[in-house]
Amino acid sequence: MPAAKGALTRRSFIAGAALAPALWGARGRAEEAVPVSQRFARTPPPVTAPDQLLDVMEFEPLARTALPPAHWGYLATGVDGDLTVARNMDAFLHYQIRARRFVDLTHLDTARTVLGVRWPSPVYLSAVSSQRAFHPEGELAVARAARERATQLMLSTGSSFAVEAVTQARGAPVWQQLYATDDFTVTEALVRRAEKAGATAIVLTVDAKEVRRNNETLRRAMLADNRTCTACHVDNTHDMWRGRAMFQGLDTSRVTALSPPALTTQFLDRLRETVKGRLMVKGIVTGEDAALALAHGVDGLVVSNHGGRNEETLRASIDCVPEVVAAVKGKVPVFVDGGIRRGADIFKALALGATAVGIGRPQAWGLAAFGQPGVERVLDLYNTELAAIMRQAGTPTLADITPAHVLRA
Ligand SMILES: Cc1cc2nc3c(=O)[nH]c(=O)nc-3n(C[C@H](O)[C@H](O)[C@H](O)COP(=O)(O)O)c2cc1C
Q1: Which of 6, 34, 68, 216 has its CA 20 to 30 A from that of 407?
Q2: What distance in angstroms lies between residue 128's CA and the mean position of ligand 1's atoms?
Q3: Domains and CATH numbers, the chain
Q4: CB atoms within 10 A of CB 266
Q5: Of these residues, 71, 135, 238, 306, which one is catalytic?
Q6: What is the 8-class DSSP label of residue 384?
Q7: Enclosing H/E stretch for 103
Q8: What is the pLDDT of residues 300-322, one digit of tens each?
Q9: How far is the CA of 360 from the centre of ligand 1 (A)?
């Protein structure tokens, strides 16, 4: 996104940090006229291992280099001008942390019990489809990383590998994200399959309405890719989903879309009756819809705009958290995803009332760059940074993080 003059964006921040030493150097004494950045400069070693990376965002260019243009485009794309993708990240810059002193920080604990399971940190891996496009081991490598870091995995309906194999690689039940399709027989079969594999929640995505979204970045990237896409994909719509692992063995001949055209509360009721365990919805961005979903029996909500991939609302998902939290009144957990790139972002989301946060693209950057160890490093960076800001802000446990710890500038 072209940043408005003077506007604070994540990228301008980084560029500014790189420029600063040169400016300081130029202001120094005559013998120090050589910019500081050059006097002390060393060529950084080539990146060969994930632990050389110090920031989740550093995985992005590595993934871009590792991937063919069209697969990169699929991962990066938003819709229209990708402005909501950028907003999701930049919005965190407007929240400031109010750090408190005089707190006993002898024991710092980032753990939280979520839906009856103790998580070492309030981070889960959100649904990202077709991960074999990023690495041959796809979701299996992500699941192994999740197992190593005891992290909850939400598996996409469009996963390259089926829920049974991914659950085995994870060594614990997944949450199954659900694209219900427009054929309820298929909906029911997907739910039963996930339940049989032990999924502890079905997560209905409610923000995927368009069969052909205006994903310009993907389409431009496809033009730059000289491989023949149809060698692997029938086409670039839901047809490529019907061939996916979760749909195998199902009669998908009547499926024309990922979601029913009337995804109303009546549909939610029908699904509620079908799902035996927990039902959550993903893609809520207003208090009104949160209240409706709650009234129709959901067990959890995910505040999400799909990482800016489905709609160009210009509304960052973090900005939607307060009204959803207010509507839910603590009755069910509220999760949020979109643009979370730092431990401090997690802290801010929790301070605004989120139970935990989901990570989308960064897991795929780690995967594309290094496979399983890359995903592990991405998770470690989030968790290390979260622990650091918890200590600095005077919040030894997640329960200590309150709305009083955050301020919207
Ligand atoms: C390549 C890709 C595929 C995705 N596939 C799905 C999906 O199948 N189902 C779903 O509900 N969300 C899907 N998402 C959205 C993520 O679950 C999540 O909402 C979003 O990526 C969070 O934003 P972030 O990428 O900025 O972290 C996908 C996101 C990406 C980047």
Answers
A1: 6
A2: 5
A3: 1-43 (no CATH), 69-408 (3.20.20.70)
A4: 10
A5: 306
A6: H
A7: none
A8: 999 999 999 999 999 999 999 99
A9: 5
